[in-house]
Structures are given as C-alpha cells and as structure tokens.
Structure of Arylamine N-acetyltransferase:
Amino acid sequence: MLTDPQLLYYLEKIGYFPKGHTNRKKNIAITEIRKSPSTQVMNLLPRLQLTTIPYESISLHWRPVLQSADESPRGAPVLLSPPMGITPADVYSKLVAQSRGGYCFEMNCLLGYAFQSLGFLVDRVTAKMVCDIKAIAKRAASLVGEGANGFTSEELVQMEAMPADVPGWETHQMLLVALPSDPTHQYLVDIGLAKYSIRAPVLLTKLSSEVHLTRSPGVMGTQLRVWHDPAKPEANRWNVSIQWLGCPVYFPLYTFQAQAADPAQIEMIHYYMSLSPRSCDPPEMFATMYVDGLGQVSLQGMELTIVDIDRWGSRQVERTVLESEEEQEACFKKYFGIEGYKLGAIHASEGIIIFSDHCP
C-alpha cells in the first residue's frame, strides 16, 4: 500500500480534492473514505488517473545506466533491467513523484495500491490478449457505416468468440476491486490499455442461464463489453470485447479468470514485458492521455495525433509529423508533463542489458 503522505500527494496529483482544500480537510476526507469506501470513489479514481497520468513506454527505450562504457568489460554501457519495479515505492516514485507515466502493470498497480490504502479490497489479476489490435482496427474501419444488417446473429457471435485456449502468456494485468461491506461483488478496473482502457469499473455479474453482457465506455469513442459464459462455470472465465465508434461489431480483446494472480507470476511477467522487444508495441516511444479541451492526445515516435469526439459522435482527427527530437521532447513535456527521461539514461539499442540485484 501507499504511505499516508504518498496517498495524499497521489490524490492531489490526480485532482481528487477541490481547489482550496487545506491538508487538514484532505486528511479528514481520506479518513471518511476509509470508514466507508464507496462505489462513487471507485468510479472517480480511474477516470481522474486516466486524465492526469499518461500511458507511456519511454522507459522501455531510455534505460538508466548502471555502469559506464569504460567500466563495462564489453565496452558498452550496462543498463538497468527491468528499468522500473512495480512495488508501491517504485510506481509512486515514477508515476507520481517524477511525473512520468507507465504501461498496464505500472498504471494499474498504482491505482490498486491507492484503492488498498483507502480501504478497498483489491486483487491483481492477469489476462491473455487474444486480439491483434491493428488487424481489428482495420477490420472495424471497413465496417463503419455499413451497419450490422449484412451479418447473421451467428456470425456476430463468432466475431466476438474468445479463443481462451490460444497459446501464449497472460501478459496483461488488471484489478478486481470490491467494497469491504460487500466482498462477493467484484468490479473489473482496467486503465492500463492505453487508448483501449475502461473508463468505469464493471461489476462482474453471473447469470445461470444466459451470457451476461455489461457495457462500459472506453476512450476515443470505443465501447467495451464484459461477459461471462455460463456454459463454462468451472473456469470462472470472463471475456472483454471492444467496439469502435460507428462499428456494429464487437471484437475480442482479452480473456481472464476472476481470481488473484500469484505475485511471483506478476513479477515474472513484468520482467518479461520490460525486456522483450515483442512487448513493445508500438515499437517507437509512445504516450497517450486524454487532455481537457483537446481530446485524446497520442505521441508515437514522431507523429502527434489528437482525436476528439464531438457531441454528435464524430471523430475529429488532427495529425502532425514532428521534424526533430527537440520537438518530440517538447511535446512529451507540453501534453504529458514528461521531461528529463534522458538524464542518466541511454537508448536501449546502445547498451548492454544485464540481470541485476534490482530485478526479481
């Protein structure tokens, strides 16, 4: 969990407290939440973190240096790997104190620690991604405006089918959150999928005789659907599907079992995701966050994209190609508050990644 000073600063950073609140009033508010955690607070914290702490992958590219090239026996800088841990102290230091962002493990871990510090019951769970986002987005774009009239109900169900037995690791991590007064009812919370995050917690509800569908708004006009298949009750498996703005079809996103993951497994997956080139998608440095007055701002490599959804449900897209690394650094600072990421670091392509005592 976060310490009391860390929790106070976290809540200040995400804008939980009204302007003008003294520290005494803030501490009283925290005490009141701990006495009776509520679904109102559970709904508010994810939305606030999504608009104040960016999803970003910069630390996968710019790594802290452990040894200089002169000290390294192989003549290249030795880099810390993984670049960041996921303990409460680690994620607080990076995402709050240093005003950085993070990927799913870091974003959801920070939120989970905050929930626990406020008295909520939290399980960290892992999920298997069963989609190819680029392929799905391309397919969805071709269906926008066509309507669902061309598909039979069986075809629509097949498009959303979850291949739970697809090979591979469960490389995504989310949260199951519950109120102490009602521990049997858990809510799925996931703000760690960048532009595909869930903005509001989803109550996991099982029905005995039919597939239960719960819809929740995502970012950038997407809708997400969480469902449990009663035909496989022994697996306690849940599926999350995504629908793009204007597209009639839901596509499979990820599948998970509603049970706490082994902490050692979470550490191992984080270690893999921090090292493997396959985990870095997109391959360029990337950051995204909703910015009030602008929309969803994303910086991928040298391309800046701003997407806004107007009141009629239309997308307004603005793209800018940056011309220099200086412009890129200025955009990271302007839109995401990220700066200084090159200090004491070097690009991963130029160094040697080693196992270190810092790693699990």
Q: What stands out?
A: The domain at 4-353 is CATH 3.30.2140.20 (Arylamine N-acetyltransferase fold). The two ends are 19 Å apart (CA to CA).
